[in-house]
Amino acid sequence: MVTEVGGFDDPSAEVLAEAASAFGLLASSARLHIVWALAQGESDVTGLAERVGGALPAVSQHLTKLKLAGLVRSRREGRRQVYYVDDPDVVTVVRLMVGQLTDRADRSDGSGLPVQGAAPRLRGFGA
Fold first, then answer.
1. What is the pLDDT of residues 93-127, one digit of tens each?
2. N- or C-end of the chain: fewer Cβ atoms within 10 A?
């Protein structure tokens, strides 16, 4: 059953399950960092490991999970496997969430509390 509220139809159970699965993968800070880095430009696993500060085997495993979920793709360039985010919507969601939380952190006074006039923090995000 699809319900309409405020002009928007509720998504199907299948769509919600797929979205929850994608968000579940991005709930790992390591995988989120990898997707963030790939949203800025493609890279091989060595470059990603250096950028995100992870061990090569761990980053490779994260990339495999992201690839199986369809959030990341790869192509071969000679002997290297180059990874990239091929879905502009994934890039938009990651940039939006990380950008918003970065802006809020920048507006805090160092105590973790927002400064006067700053937008309130989302419950469940941060402290």
1. 988 988 888 888 888 766 555 555 544 444 443 43
2. N
